[in-house]
Amino acid sequence: MWELAMRLRSAGKHEEALKQFEKITVENPQDADVQYYAATNDVLGREKEAVPYYEKAIALGYDEVDAYIGLGSTYRVLHRYEDARKILEQGYEQFPDNFALPPFLAMTYYNLQEHEKATTLLLQCYVKASLDNDVQAFSRAINYYATHLND
């Protein structure tokens, strides 16, 4: 059943895959991977239904950045900004070198009216992720002003 669900998911047949993953979660409620993949609900616009699967996956030890981004982004879409902040900050602390997570955290800071914090995070991530020689030439200045935006 797992192989079928993964094939359906890979083929973009999310509705069918979700049905399979939900069946598997009943049979394997303590499997973190199964819980994570059952969160396919959010791809279908069913964010509310995805939340318990993401939460359980993380609680059971699913330790991949995708779960933190998925849950944080889902919370954000549901206007649960403080929950989004908490989970995305946890993810950022755990995966500081992942460049996909900071934009989601910055958007959450924006929603919480923490514009300076959002800008600082994005600027620091930009410098860290950029391979561009011109950006790197100014990296010290950008990093300084990222934390001194009003100077």
From TrEMBL:
<feature type="repeat" description="TPR">
    <location>
        <begin position="65"/>
        <end position="98"/>
    </location>
</feature>
<dbReference type="InterPro" id="IPR019734">
    <property type="entry name" value="TPR_rpt"/>
</dbReference>
<keyword id="KW-0677">Repeat</keyword>
<dbReference type="InterPro" id="IPR011990">
    <property type="entry name" value="TPR-like_helical_dom_sf"/>
</dbReference>
<dbReference type="InterPro" id="IPR051012">
    <property type="entry name" value="CellSynth/LPSAsmb/PSIAsmb"/>
</dbReference>
<feature type="domain" description="Tetratrico peptide repeat group 5">
    <location>
        <begin position="38"/>
        <end position="149"/>
    </location>
</feature>
<protein>
    <submittedName>
        <fullName>Tetratricopeptide repeat protein</fullName>
    </submittedName>
</protein>
<keyword id="KW-0802">TPR repeat</keyword>
<dbReference type="Pfam" id="PF12688">
    <property type="entry name" value="TPR_5"/>
</dbReference>
<dbReference type="InterPro" id="IPR041656">
    <property type="entry name" value="TPR_5"/>
</dbReference>
